[in-house]
Amino acid sequence: MILLDAAGKWSWRRLRALLRRPKVICTAALWALGLIGAVGGGAPRGLLQMAMAMAAAVLCDLLLRRLRRQRLAAPDGAIITGAIVGMVLAADSPLWLAPAIAAVSICSKHVIRLRHRHVFNPAAVGLLLAAAAGASESWWGDLAGLHPVYVVLLVALIYVVLWRARKFASFFAYMAAFLAICFAAGAMQSALGADAFHNPILNSTLFAAGLMASDPPTSPSRLFEQVAFGAAAASVSAAVYLAASGLLYPFIGLLAANAAYAAVRARRRVLQSAGREART
Q1: List of residues 6+ apart from 238 with CB closer than 8 A
Q2: For 108-159, how does the pLDDT look when each residue is reduced to its tens digit (9 = 90+)?
Q3: pTM for this predicted structure
Q4: Per residue in 223-255, pLDDT tens?
Q5: Maximum distance among all Cα pairs of the chain, rounded to whole angstroms
Q6: pLDDT of residue 14
Q7: Residue 209 contacts residue 177 (beta carbons within 8 Å)
C-alpha cells in the first residue's frame, strides 16, 4: 500500500512538472485545436497530415542533434513546429508535403544560429518557403472554417499557452498594433483593412500572435522587449497584408521581428563583454 501511495505521488509530481513546461501546454493546445478543426470542419485527413509532420520534425531534429554531437533532449520544439506546419498547410495537400516542410523547418533551426541559439521561428521559415514554392495554405487549425463562436475556444487555448509561457505582453502588443493599423486603413476606405476584423484574417492573426510569436527561444521574455517585439512583428505583418493581402503576412512579420531580436541580443552581449573587460 505504501509503495502504491509513493508511486501515485511520484506520478502526480511528474505530471505537475510536465504541466509547468510551456511547450507541453502548447502541444496540448495545438492538438486540441487540430481535433476540433478536423472533426468540426470535416477534414480528418488534416490530423494524419499533422501527425506525419510532427513525426518528420522529431526524426529530423534528433538526427541533426546526433550529427552535431549535441546531447539528445526531448524534441518538444520539433513537435510544436510539425504541428503548426500540419495545421497551416491545406488539409488536402499531398501527404508528403507536410513532412517535407516540417523537415525543412527543423533544418533551418539547426543551420541559422547565433551563439548557439536559433534565430528564426522554424515553422515560419518552412511555411514561408512552402508558400513561395506555390504550396496551398488553408490555416484549417485556427478554426476559421467553423462557426464564428469557435473563436472563443481559440482564444481560451491561446490564453492557457500565454499564461504558462508568460507572453501576454507580446500577444496584446501584436494584436493592438495589427488591428490599429488595419482600423486606420479601413477608415481610409481600405477593404483589406476592414476584412482584418473578420475570418479568416482575424483567426490567423490570433493564431500567429498567440502560438507562434510566443515561441520562447526566438522571442524576448522581458516585459518592455515583449511589447516592442509584438508591435514590430504586427507592424510588418500589417504592412505586408495591406500591400499584398493573402496569408503570408504573419510569417514575414514574425521573421522580421526574430531578426531584430537576434540583433538586440548580439548587441547586448557585445556591451556586456565590453563592460567586463573595462572592469578588469
Answers
A1: 177, 178, 181, 182, 185, 196, 249, 253
A2: 999 998 878 889 999 999 999 999 888 888 899 999 888 889 999 999 999 9
A3: 0.90
A4: 999 999 999 999 999 999 999 888 889 999 999
A5: 72
A6: 61
A7: no
Q: What is the mean pLDDT of residues 64-76?
A: 82
Give the range among 70-84, 178-192, 196-210 with minimum mean pLDDT.
Answer: 70-84
42: left (phi over 0), alpha (psi -120 to 50) or beta: left
CA distances from 194 to 26, 181, 186, 238, 239 (A): 30, 11, 5, 12, 14
* Cis ω for the linkage preceding 200 (within 30 of 0): yes
Q: Return phi, psi of residue 56, to 5°.
A: -65, -40
Q: 482584418: which residue's cell?
A: 196
Q: Is 118 left (phi over 0), alpha (psi -120 to 50) or beta?
A: beta
